[in-house]
Amino acid sequence: MKGCATFSSNPSTARSPWLHWSAGDPARGTDSPASNYRALAAPKSRPRGDEGGFTLIEVLLALALLAALLMAINQFVFSITEAWTKNQDRFLFVQHTRAVTRHLDELLRAAAAGARGHTPAAGAPAGAEVRSPEGGTVDLLAFDLPMGDRLLTWPSTPLPEVQCALAWREDDGLVLYYKSRLEEDFADANPRMAVLSPFATSLTYDYYDTTTELWSTEDSLQKDSSGNYEAPRRIRIKFKRKNQEYEETITLPVITEGLPGY
Q1: Global confidence as pTM
Q2: How many domains does the chain have?
Q3: Residues in contact with 127: Cβ distance below 8 Å, sequence separation at least 6, in sequence order
Q4: In terms of DSSP bridges, do strands 192-197 and 173-180 run parallel, antiparallel, or are they unpaired?
Q5: Domain with 106 in it
């Protein structure tokens, strides 16, 4: 029938009635099935106003929000880094002060242990008049190290039987004067110097008066009425770096009578 869609009775060759029109259909304005198919399959054009995209205002708003987010993240990271650096710096400073104090306490105890077998206890920590590296003498806390120490440097082979003196210098901090008794110029030459901590700002001595039962802190070693050095009970070392201050206390070992440690 002219002007109507044709159907096929064979299912294998059947086509959609809406895509297959008979040839020579004047009502559809086409001459062949191919032209009819192209006409139906062609996409319909849309108005230009329906196309997707962002306006200029939307783009500027997105950029402003992104900039604000990046600034907030940067400020947060900067604050965390500053806080971590500040705490880390303080931690390292306190670790340094404790390491110096612990090592000095070990030196004093080694000197006291080495002096237990002597009568009197020669080499134990006590006040003494010692020579300084620049010449002259000063009153310092002196002690002997029978085996020396790893912080002491020598021109050649490390030497034992080292006489040491603890001092504080304004330009160098906490230092250790030392010289071996085995050196030929021990009695005449000035001692060497090893820096224990450049952050030390003072070295003081704590004394306990058994009569008044009071403690006193002195800047220098004290002497009794006979001119002999009084043994301090403790030493105090103050450290400072930038705006950080810390104080450490070392109790001096006491030499008591008893059996030697061997």
Answers
A1: 0.65
A2: 1
A3: 139, 140, 141, 142, 221, 223, 229, 230, 231, 232
A4: antiparallel
A5: 97-251
